[in-house]
Amino acid sequence: MIQSLRRRARPRAAAAKRIGIFAFALLTTLSNSVAASADPANGERLAKRWCASCHIVSADQTRGADNVPSFAAIAKTPGFGAENIGQFLLNPHPKMPDMQLTRNEARDLGAYIASLGQ
């Protein structure tokens, strides 16, 4: 009787394992497709339009405000991630103007800044 139960449990355990692997693969694919949907080129355009008056946003820019980090420095900050900066931009700090960015624009800016750290 016990051996019979064990034999039935093996296929179920194998099926559960396959389902778990499939679910992990699906979640990984979906999260990568969301991250891939960010447009760093659009982020660069937005940065040059909205951020360049204070931050140095690209290698060809020579001046920015003295008391703010360059985008390259932000990108190299430990623990930095495109998602972090995208969320930050949706609720900027008091010294930063509220640019009323859309979620996609914030994501694009985050992707652009992250690209500067590579």
Entry summary:
The protein is mainly α. It is built from 5 helices and no strands.
Description:
The protein is 64% helix and 0% strand. It has 5 helices and no strands. The chain is an all-alpha fold and 118 residues long. The chain has helices at 2-36, 40-51, 71-75, 82-90, 103-116.
User: What is the helix tally?
Assistant: 5
Looking at the overall shape, the CATH architecture of the largest domain is Orthogonal Bundle
Topology order in helix (H) and strand (E) letters:
HHHHH
CATH superfamily of the largest domain: Cytochrome c-like domain
* Helical fraction: 55-70%
**Ends apart, CA distance between termini:** 60 Å
What is the highest CATH level, the class of the largest domain? Mainly Alpha
Q: Could you tell me the mean pLDDT?
A: 78
CA radius of gyration: 22 Å
How would you describe the shape? globular
Determine the strand fraction and express it as a percent band: under 5%
Return the CATH topology of the largest domain. Cytochrome Bc1 Complex, Chain D, domain 2
Topology:
Layout: H1 2-36, H2 40-51, H3 71-75, H4 82-90, H5 103-116
Name some characteristics of this structure.
2 domains; Cytochrome Bc1 Complex, Chain D, domain 2; mainly alpha; 118 residues; 0% strand; globular
